[in-house]
Amino acid sequence: MPTVNSVPDISVIVPIHNEEGNIPILHERLTQVLSGMEVSYEIVFVNDGSRDRSLVLLRDCAASDPYTHYLDLSRNFGHQIAVTAGLDHCRGQSAVIIDADLQDPPELIIDLYQRHQEGFEVVYARRRTRKGESWLKKATARRFYRLMSRLTHIDIPLDTGDFRIIDRKVIDVLKAMPEQNKFLRGQISWTGFRQTAIEYDRDERHAGKTSYTYRKMVRFALDGITSFSEAPLRFVTFLGFTCSGIAFLLALYALVSYFFFQEEYVRGWASTMLTVLFMGGIQLIGIGIIGEYLARIGANVRNRPLYVVAEQSDQEEQA
Asked: In the 3-class helix/strand/coil scheme, how is 182-243 assigned residue by residue?
């Protein structure tokens, strides 16, 4: 095994948010897998504002294992930002991104690394089955990936998460991308390097409850769509022309009814109110969609740091 200060072959990045029930066994399985691969490695845990004993366990892991490090973010910045922090601080020639809930088996890292050694800069794990998840989550995830493939101009792999291995070249490109609203799956696909997939069966969560609520899923979907597609803006434009056409036809109908069918023409407020409410609703939808894009532009213009590190192990080594 090379020395701790050498550049490792693999960096394993693990975002952590309230995962005290999973950290010990995850660290044990990762260590067993990586030590048996005859490669140099490091494990980088990123504590994303956990409120349980996760940070205490990470300190213990780093104290007992010289190949394990951790970052403690000052608050919960979100999953994608936590992964980004790990990518910023990792030193490996390649990086594996894996969640801490043990739904993604650490043993698959062996196959991911082997395919990477064949010349692929990105090897992602595609879910064949997903155990322990509700039909609603499976259905919404399935529709999301297929909607993204229709709306975006890049080829985002279907039925994949963030579990993958990426080459140092990809890491350097990601570090140069300044977006505040991260959608790493899309950004990695955007780089255009050689990519391939390995299929696997996803397990149930080992312990604890997921912090990825439906609200966060919706926000994540919005980040993905607004980061890689202008389709919502085009949709609003199309809707505006459609409403204008309908309004023009209604105006013609009103004129014809008034001058030629006065007995049948009924003056009332119902049609007026319906038209006003319909047009007002369309305008609010348009303003909302445009506002989503403007909010993201504003966040990038402010250029605030993506995250704040409150504590980290081996600071001089990882600087």
From this structure: CCHHHHHHHCCCCEEEEEEEECCCCCCCCCCCHHHHHHHHHHHHHHHCCHHHHHHHHHHHHH
Task: Return the percentage of the chain with pLDDT > 70, whole number.
Answer: 65
- For residues 239 and 286, is the Cβ–Cβ distance under 8 A? yes
User: Beta strand 68-73 with 94-97: parallel, antiparallel or unpaired?
Assistant: unpaired
Question: Tell me, what's the pLDDT at 317?
Answer: 46
- Structure confidence at residue 90 (pLDDT): 95
Among the listed residues 305, 292, 175, 308, the one whose alpha carbon sits nearest the alpha carbon of residue 226: 292
Residue recorded with tokens 């959608």? 183
Residues recorded for the chain: 319
Q: Is the pLDDT of residue 301 over 90?
A: no
- pTM for the model: 0.71
Distance, CA of 36 to CA of 38 (rounded, Å): 6
- Residue with tokens 């014809």, as numbered in its chain: 256
**Of 146 and 85, which is predicted with more confidence?**
85
As a whole number of angstroms, the distance between CA 305 and CA 14 comes to 20
The answer to whether residue 217 scores a pLDDT higher than 60 is yes
DSSP 224-292: HHHHH--HHHHHHHHHHHHHHHHHHHHHHHHHHHHHH-TTT----SHHHHHHHHHHHHHHHHHHHHHHH
- Asked whether residue 135 carries a pLDDT value surpassing 70, the answer given is no
- Beta bridge partners, 12, equal 43, 96
